[in-house]
Design a protein that fits this description.
two-stranded antiparallel sheet, 8 helices, five-stranded mixed β-sheet
């Protein structure tokens, strides 16, 4: 090979590698500018979200990598906002619970302090001291009831207590719930009318559902006048069995029908009757955990009808086959 050919090849190689280097440098510079631009746009998008500007205001083109990052930021913003709302709602709920507890505890605690001071007075008679001790016992009983109710409520809300639904005869459930209120009914000469089919089998947790029914029955006795009647009627439906508990008491105002299941809610006309307004709240919580529900039919000054709906065991067993 002569020198011209060698020279030509050498020059060609130099030119080729020079061009290759120039192209590579150009590509590198272009990619660097793209990377810097992408990083700056990403930072601007993050800053916009951090400064409270909605991610929906960002210019998102679905065909670019930046748009994918921005859509992820939008999703992150939604999750963060939802978590913030949940945290705020939880904080508000805690504040409401503390406020409710303070309100509920204030009267019995004040009474206990007052009657303790009176009972410790050496100048009162033994008869007066005995009356003070009776009041103290009653107020301590109220505190104990409130504390126990709060414990049950907290455990249910936090799922510390789990319900275990099983097949339960309706008659067994009613007998267990009625056992605890017959004494109160007898004291007020209230007659109990039970009209239920004994062959109905339900799917529920017997212990907790009996407590749910007891809360409804206890309210019926508590707010009914002396010598009245409380009727318990059961009707087997296609999926549920309806247990209606109807009394002849003071009734519920229609505008408060949705409020009576709220924690610690009590109408003004019920203020003179002993209670803390937590029974129906617990009942609703229990029923919801076993796929049942509660329905209240308000009737001003004409009694109250509360219906408890519980799953029929037969329907569940047939569906699971």
């Amino acid at each position: 090979m002569d020198q011209r050919a060698i020279l030509f090849i050498t020059v060609s190689a130099i030119v080729f590698f020079g061009l290759l280097g120039a192209v590579s440098a150009g590509i590198w510079l272009h990619m660097r500018r793209k990377y810097i631009s992408f990083a700056e746009e990403t930072c601007r998008s993050i800053d916009a979200v951090l400064n409270g500007r909605s991610a929906e205001e960002l210019d998102m083109d679905e065909d670019t990598l930046l748009s994918k990052v921005q859509m992820k930021l939008k999703r992150l913003e939604e999750i963060t906002a939802a978590a913030a709302r949940k945290s705020e709602a939880r904080e508000q709920e805690v504040q409401e619970i503390i406020s409710d507890l303070s309100h509920q505890l204030k009267t019995p605690v004040a009474n206990i302090i007052m009657y303790c001071d009176t009972a410790m007075n050496p100048v009162i008679t033994e008869e007066e001291r005995a009356k003070c001790m009776a009041v103290l016992k009653n107020q301590v009983g109220k505190l104990d009831f409130l504390v126990q109710a709060m414990i049950r409520m907290s455990r249910l809300e936090q799922n510390i207590i789990s319900l275990h639904p099983d097949t339960v005869p309706l008659r067994n459930l009613l007998d267990r719930a009625l056992q605890s209120i017959r004494g109160k009914a007898a004291e007020k000469k209230i007659s109990l009318e039970i009209l239920c089919d004994e062959d109905v089998i339900l799917l529920c947790d017997e212990k907790w559902t009996a407590e749910a029914l007891f809360n409804v029955l206890d309210n019926a006795i508590k707010y009914s006048p002396f010598g009245s009647r409380v009727a318990v009627r059961c009707e087997r439906l296609e999926i549920y069995t309806k247990i209606e508990i109807k009394d002849e008491g003071i009734g519920i105002s229609p505008e408060h029908a949705a409020d009576v299941c709220k924690r610690f809610f009590r109408e003004e006309k019920a203020a003179k009757t002993e209670g803390v307004g937590i029974g129906l709240y617990l009942t609703r919580e229990i029923l919801e955990k076993e796929n049942g529900y509660l329905k209240i039919s308000p009737r001003e000054r004409a009694g109250t009808a509360v219906s408890v709906y519980l799953l029929n065991a037969e329907e569940f067993m047939n569906a699971s086959k």
